[in-house]
Amino acid sequence: MNATEKIEAGGLRLDNALWLAPLAGVTTPPVREFFAALGAGLTHTEMISCMGLLRDNRKTEGMLRLLPGEDSKCGNPVVLQLFAGDADTMARGAEMALAANARCGPLRFAALGVNMACPMPKVTKRGAGAALMGTETAFAMVRGLKRLGLLVWVKTRRMPDDRETLRFVEGLVEAGADNVCVHGRTAAQRYEGRADRVATAAAAERFPGKISASGDVYTVEDVKEYLNMGCVGVMLARGALANPYLFPLALRALGYRVPEDLTAPARGERIRRLLSLGERARRICGPKTALVLLKRLMAGMFKGMPGASELRRGVGLASNLEELEKLLRLDFTENIG
User: Fold this and answer.
1) Is 87 within a domain?
2) Domain region containing 311
3) Residue 20 contacts residue 241 (beta carbons within 8 Å)
4) ∠ CA(270), CA(244), CA(326), 5° rounding?
5) What is the CATH number of the domain that holds 28?
6) Bridge partner residues of 183 (DSSP)
7) What percent of the chain has pLDDT over 90?
8) Which residue, 45, 100, 186, 321, has most beta carbons within 10 Å?
9) Residue 83: CA atoms inside 13 Å, Cβ hemisphere, count?
10) What Cα–Cα distance (Å) separates residue 79 from each residue in 98, 200, 229, 281, 319?
11) pLDDT (tens digit per residue) in 211-244
């Protein structure tokens, strides 16, 4: 995918300003690879527990895996998204993650990401995620990570008082955050209601070059609105699942040269990409995870196409990866072959 020009964001030189946000249970290596092929200029790992790393949890350590090509030098930078309830745990967990990364080969994470946005009780009750908003601990975390020599990206939320949001973002920037992503919902809203864009716009104006955005990015117009506010990047989360092809569609609208098979993909091309993702996920994550991932993406991949509802119902009933792949191949035979 040929960009008109590179962009500078969060201390990185990136192909574009459209990025895949961290999504629990979703942004596994094969899914990151899938969206990078659709044009994502940067991706994130899932949210990784620093305490899990310190306790040598094998599942947590497995989430650190990078695939060939997932490196800033290769064009597919990945931000390591971490969470913890205190600055010491965050710093020690990050050190362990980077050491494990170094042992695995030459691929490196582009930046350290700190989750200060997750509103779910299982995270906030540990003092992590959105519980860090407005606290001195949040600033101490950023200062501690900066001492490790990597770029630090923070993902947070709007606070009930927009003035408090700006003060918090200011504290993060002063502590050394290279990029602050502001999600327009408060922690109390969780994922309900609409994302307010006023605080995000105010932060982008106050801290030029430092703010990216997330929240209700479902259309090309949503992407353009955030960028026109002065945000240096836009993170797609649920909008990416609702329509994976939003990446190439938005990039084309922004003036990038995008292949036609990405902006107007035929049914067969969509099936091919899903089957390829399923096979990659099977090898890397196992068949159970592969099944879950394909089901998460299925609705968005065929939205608005003839017979999509029937296909989705069949996929929903599939009890294993083989059944799902059989349905996709049958659909290909009936509608294309």
Assistant:
1) yes
2) 265-335
3) no
4) 35
5) 3.20.20.70
6) 157, 214
7) 85
8) 45
9) 28
10) 12, 21, 24, 20, 33
11) 999 999 999 999 999 999 999 999 999 999 999 9
